[in-house]
Design brief:
seven-stranded mixed β-sheet; binds guanosine-5',3'-tetraphosphate; alpha/beta
Length: 285
């Protein structure tokens, strides 16, 4: 499974996704853009607007269970102002997923009314789900399909390999979610994605990555860092010094009492990703 995910990062697959989107766009009523609620900017594809044009959009702030609820609310307002429908979800556990169909119906209200006026009342809403790797596309689709993932019938105008997944709410999903690219050539973006574990964290050494994360958390979530690692909010110093402090406070020492910053780095990244530090967002609107 891990290998497959790595393969999806090949630029060649991006070209394939672009073609898939261009071909499928006329077949869907809306696009669902899946973002990581903890970092909606870094987890988005920079070409998304260009690729999906004026298609009505539902933004799903996924992994909301791990994100700071106040900041997630700010993001919701931010995307609503842009004219998108927005929901939050925890696709792993299914929380919020039931808002998917109602949000789409609201977004497409006028279009659905036009269909109804033409007597096409039971017509399902068709949606394409797009997002970067690991953002939760498969989890969401499994939740929406109610575990069945029964393939819907072929339809005229759709290639044989492209099929629709039915959900219980008369919404149909394209069976292959679109895998898009984040803006990986932006170092800041790559670093934040690596912090969450969305991309392999060997783009930076673990200690450098953890030092940056610890500095950021110490600034934005001082209470969490004080509670878990006994680093005072008043403590000054760069990330690496904080990491040394954390190692000392946790008794992670090498011979001669040298702080084991490598172990502290691994611990910090694991505990952050495992929400041991609480619900944390890395980006604000
Ligand atoms: P993808 O298709 O977009 O690549 O993503 P996928 O659904 O495979 O999800 C990637 C990882 O993120 C999975 O964890 C999945 O369980 C987790 N995930 C997806 N949505 C949510 C969410 O809303 N909240 C939380 N907390 N996690 C979510 P994994 O570690 O790869 O697998 P597993 O440990 O869950 O088995």
């Amino acid at each position: 499974m891990e290998d497959m995910k790595d393969i999806q990062w090949f630029p060649g697959h991006m070209a394939k996704t672009r073609r898939m989107i261009a071909k499928s766009l006329p077949l869907v009523d809306a696009v669902a853009e899946l973002l990581d609620a903890r970092l909606p900017l870094s987890s988005r594809n920079p070409e998304f607007n260009r690729l999906t044009g004026k298609k009505p959009r539902l933004v799903i702030l996924n992994k909301a269970d791990m994100a700071d609820p106040d900041i997630t609310n700010q993001w919701m307002q931010f995307y609503k102002k842009k004219g998108y429908a927005v929901i939050t979800a925890d696709s792993k556990n299914g929380k919020g997923v039931k808002q998917f169909a109602p949000a789409l119906r609201e977004l497409l209200k006028e279009q659905l009314q036009r269909y109804a006026d033409k007597g096409m009342k039971g017509r399902p809403i068709r949606v394409m789900i797009l997002g970067i790797p690991n953002v939760g596309k498969s989890s969401l689709i499994n939740r929406l399909a109610g575990g069945k993932r029964a393939k819907a019938e072929d339809r005229a105008g759709v290639t044989r390999t492209q099929q629709w997944i039915k959900t219980t709410d008369s919404v149909e999903l394209l069976d292959t979610p679109g895998v898009l690219w984040p803006k990986l050539d932006d170092q800041e973006v790559a670093v934040r994605l690596a912090m969450t574990g969305a991309i392999r964290d060997d783009i930076l050494d673990k200690e450098a990555l953890a030092a940056r994360l610890l500095k950021l958390l110490h600034q934005e979530y001082p209470q969490a860092i004080a509670e878990r690692y006994k680093i005072s909010p008043e403590q000054e110093g760069e990330g690496f010094e904080l990491l040394e402090q954390m190692a000392k406070n946790r008794g992670m020492l090498l011979s001669g009492g040298v702080p084991n910053t490598e172990r502290a780095a691994i611990t910090l990244l694991d505990e952050f990703r495992g929400t041991k530090l609480g619900r944390i967002s890395l980006e604000k609107p």
